[in-house]
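Z., the sequence and structure:
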Amino acid sequence: MRATDKTTAEIEVLSAFNGLVEASKSLNSDKYFEYFDKEKFTGLNSDGTVWHSISGLEAMIPSGFSMVEKIITLEFKNVKVTVLNQTTAILVNEYTQSMLLKSGDEVTQSGGGTQVWFKQSSVWKLVSVSASDVSH
């Protein structure tokens, strides 16, 4: 794979990741799930449980978003994209977020994540995610 192709893929994956982040910040689960390949998805939750399909994540995200009044901050640092080939890339990151819940409580979380992105029909989609939560 040529260096220019890797750079293009990295830029495209980062753009898709930024769209996912914006959907999270706006608490828009429909937009959030546009970034997932619902047929190929599998993942690891921060509590150590696994998803063998998108259905578990689809049950969790909208209910979680509905408990949040607003995202105060959502920041990603140490983001790195490793392009494996023209259709596969891995993105790792560290994050911190604080949010105001509808209950009035403020919650702060931090941890890291790994995402596997797959390009099909010129669109990058998430096929796997894993997360850690170090805020306990």
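The radius of gyration is 15 Å. The CA atoms of residues 89 and 119 lie 9 Å apart.

Let me know what you think.
H.
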